[in-house]
Amino acid sequence: MIDLNHHLNIASRSRHPSPLKKIIQFMAMNDMVSLAGGLPHPSLFPLHTSTITASSPCTKHQVKLDLSAGKAENPFASFLQYGSGAGNAQLRQWCRDFTQHVHRPLCESFDILLHPGNTNAWSKVVNLLCERGEYILCEEFTYPSAQACWIPLGNYAAPVAMDAQGIRDDSLESTLAGWELNHPGIQRPHVLYLVSVGSNPTGVTMGVERRRKIYEICVRYDIIIVEDDPYFFLQFPEYELNPKTINDTSTSNKQFLASLAPSFLQIDYQGRVIRLESFSKTLAPGLRLGYFIAHPFFIQRLLLATEVETQDPSGLSQAVVLSLLQTWGMDGYLTWLRNLRHEYQARRDWMIRAFQHEFTLVPGSQHPDLDVADSTLVAVLDAVPIFSFVPPTGGMFIWAQFHLHANPTFQKMRKDQSLEDPEECFAEYFWEMLVEERVLLTPGSYYHPWQGKDKVTIQARGAKPAVTNFRISFSMTTREEMERGIARLAKVVRASWEL
Ligand SMILES: Cc1ncc(COP(=O)(O)O)c(C=O)c1O
């Protein structure tokens, strides 16, 4: 571990331990009569026992979780009481063992801290590392809630160009090498925010070689990597346009783990990776539970903030998740994740097949004029390329780039001198047509990183001319709904492109 102290912002350097949390340890001492705490008496908790029915990871049978049974040292009431801030010790240990088994961190010295989901975890990291006015390195298209957190804090995005593997190392290098020249007087960014598996919105996953290159650049320029990775276990093999192989669901947990792109933890030899894990996409988002994995240096400071901001995540959620994981065991949880991956992979395939039903899908190489990555597929209607996308290798989303050259309405908008942002005007008009037809996509403009008030139009924020993006999610709908939705999309395309 190298000295990373200079990465902390003034607020986190000035934090003191919460005095209330300090005294809690003394309450547990043998024979202590505590007249100190403001804890409610457990006999006055109105909740006594709780039984939850859960799925079994391997069979169709259900398992019963008795939260009141627990282990001797963890009766149900202890989950209802104030905790330490770091979260339940047994659950933390479970997460630690799981991390060791799955990610095999290169830095042996790492700690776990529970948090109430990655949204809050990222906000804690921004408040740990960033000062007002600083730029944060992020993907060219980034998760909107992540930037909605830093915009009011006076931070800006420094977007890094992407391809089908996520952010490009050459683009990261040139952004950093040219920083002083292009941003005189502004401090070079020292934080990289990444969704490197099944990125939201682009669906792309970063392979190991790219990770190594990105990591080495971060070492050279002294950058902290924040890996927001809720989709880690939802990694799929590449989509086959004309499938030759039968989708094999009979892999073992070992093969499943070996098939996953590694976390940056496996590459990090300096303790400069802060990883955000969430149970939202693997169990349920309403649990509001996840955990940080980072060097103890960062975990200690994050704990100080946790103690006075959120305290422990909900005790009930911790009780449910601990009980579920203990009942399933690590192998059972991995089986659950392996099956989950197949479920989402099937949904991705249904969505692309629905595209194939309404459009002709061809490899991007057949449309060199579109300047798209090799693995891109182009959806064509009556010989007109309408949209292109890289079939996702993880996550829940397809990032569709609509090509507007041949669209008559866009051509008119482009000629209209009064329109400052014709691509965005077209996107709004097209989105309204879709809503009228009762099919809802997420506008791509949400994902263009915020770079300050002088860069408001989509093009000023880095978009290519004559294209507009929409995010299409394949997680929530049935196959029939997907087919209906894509048929409606095709109908709107025909009307708008006048085909
Ligand atoms: C990249 C990314 N980070 C974080 C979240 C939210 O995670 P959580 O539910 O753990 O707050 C999402 C959810 O959509 C996401 O896509």
Plain-language structure description:
This protein has 499 residues and is an alpha+beta fold. The protein folds into 2 domains: 5-41 and 75-239 and 249-329, Type I PLP-dependent aspartate aminotransferase-like (Major domain) (Aspartate Aminotransferase, domain 2, 3-Layer(aba) Sandwich), CATH 3.40.640.10; 359-497, Aspartate Aminotransferase, domain 1 (Alpha-Beta Complex). Helix content is 37%, strand content 16%. The chain contains 15 helices and 17 strands. The strands form 5 sheets. The chain has a 6-stranded antiparallel sheet with strand order 12-13-14-15-17-16. α10 links the parallel β9 and β10. α5 runs parallel beside α6. It is globular and about 80 Å long. The model has no long low-confidence stretch (mean pLDDT 92). The chain binds pyridoxal-5'-phosphate (PLP). Pyridoxal-5'-phosphate binds at residues 117-119, 143, 195, 200, 228, 230, 278, 280, 285, 290. Pyridoxal-5'-phosphate binds next to α5. Belongs to the class-I pyridoxal-phosphate-dependent aminotransferase family. InterPro entries: Aminotransferase_I/II_large (IPR004839), Class-I_PLP-dep_aminotransf (IPR050859), PyrdxlP-dep_Trfase (IPR015424), PyrdxlP-dep_Trfase_major (IPR015421). It comes from Aspergillus violaceofuscus (strain CBS 115571).
